[in-house]
Amino acid sequence: MSDAPILSLEYLSTAVLLLDVDLRIVYLNPAAENLFEVGSKNLIGLNVQQVFVHTDQLACAMQQAVASNASYIEHDMILGTHAHGKLHLRCAATPLQFEQPGLMLEFHLIDRTLKLAREEQMLDQTQANRLLLRNLAHEIKNPLGGIRGAAQLLEQELEKPGLREYTQVIIQEADRLRSLMEKLLTPQSGTRHSAVNIHEVLERVRSVVLAELPEGLHIQRDYDLSLPDLIGDKEQLIQVMLNIVRNATQAMQGKGRIILRTRIARQITLIRRRHRLAILVQIIDNGPGIPAELRDKIFYPLVSGHADGHGLGLTLAQDFVSQHHGSIEFESEPGKTCFSVMLPLPN
Ligand SMILES: Nc1ncnc2c1ncn2[C@@H]1O[C@H](COP(=O)(O)OP(=O)(O)OP(=O)(O)O)[C@@H](O)[C@H]1O
Ligand SMILES: [Mg+2]
After folding, report:
1. Which of 102, 105, 107, 139 lies at a 20 to 30 A Cα distance from 154?
2. Are residues 65 and 204 in the same domain?
3. Residue-wise pLDDT tens digits, 60-77
4. Distance between CA 119 and CA 307 in Å, rounded?
């Protein structure tokens, strides 16, 4: 391959690999060295399929480019590397017709783009969830007044006092549902934003959960105690962390290990806003993992893996986090589920 094209590739910000006809690497530019975190002298002469793992999509893109003798672009490629594990990339494969024919591969990292798209989707979803919950709460609240009133009238007419036990159940449950519906209808009404220490929030959650499950549950703290206070609603944040931790304890049937971790995050973009600093809270359990069929929808209202679950815990958690301009995400596999809550700090 002549030096002229190679020289101009040196300065590109796009990661470029040049391959010979046997798919051996003849050149990679500095951007590719950065992306894959490997020096070119370690790779020259090696077949791309030896260098990377999970190469099915790459192999397919190269085949398509050669077969059509034209550029082939794969917009969402997963490629495994030794330094990073899996990378999400956009890859263009182009056949080259210099004196030595070969292939040019160009890679763009799209993890950030995907993250932004996910955040946008989550924002839309939170708004849709909020609307659905409000409508639902409204529809439930109205007949509750009627049910309660009828139970009171019935109670006055009852001859056997022992039967009051039943009317009291109706009245108390109607009251409980009414207060739950009021919370859903006016989630902002009681919101009070003030300086909140995230460790006080987590310590409260820890003591509540340990009081509920004194045996078999081990809660490990891994706190960065130098974190500053954030501005938020302490009660809401306790509810967020409690809902996540309770899900973990339920999944582990009360027995297992939960790590509560706090860290600082720098220069992050959350829901289209750039923040210099944010607090990252991770809640990690060693339970069975989130069932695969639920993973895409656990933040939707009324989605639950338990017969007696309401499917509201994570919906509310997401709503409260978004009221703090933060984000909530998870990664889950059997033996490890990690919920990450990012809460921006004042700039
Ligand atoms: N750490 C976890 N490990 C395994 N599964 C989980 C975990 N966290 C959440 N899930 C799954 O996600 C589902 C939805 O959780 P969510 O808190 O929204 O509702 P719920 O716990 O079913 O009901 P509730 O409204 O009472 O909280 C759970 O039912 C469970 O199947
Ligand atoms: Mg729950």
Report:
1. 139
2. no
3. 999 999 999 999 999 889
4. 30
Q: What pLDDT score does 186 carry? A: 67
Tell me the residue range of the domain where 46 lies.
3-109
Of the candidates 54, 77, 109, which is a domain's last residue? 109
Q: What is the edge-to-edge ordering of all strands in the sheet holding 256-270?
A: 217-222, 256-270, 273-285, 336-344, 327-333
Same domain, 273 and 182: no
pLDDT level of residue 342 (50, 70, 90 thresholds): very high
The CB of 184 under 6 Å from ligand 1? The reply is no
CA–centroid distance, 311 to ligand 1, in Å, is 7
134 and 205 together in one domain: no
Helix, coil or strand: residue 317: helix
Q: Is the CB of 317 under 6 A from ligand 1?
A: no
Same domain, 98 and 145: no
Cα(245) to centroid(ligand 1), Å: 10
pLDDT digits (tens, 9 = 90+) for 125-144: 777 877 888 888 888 888 89
Q: Give the ligand whose atoms come closest to the C-alpha of residue 328.
A: 1
Which H helix or E strand runs over 20? Answer: strand 15-20
For the CA of 312, the closest atom of ligand 1 is 25
Are residue 310 and residue 258 in the same domain, yes or no? Answer: yes
**Which residues on neighbouring strands pair with residue 261, listed in sequence order?**
222, 282
The residue whose CA has the least distance to atom 10 of ligand 1 is 290
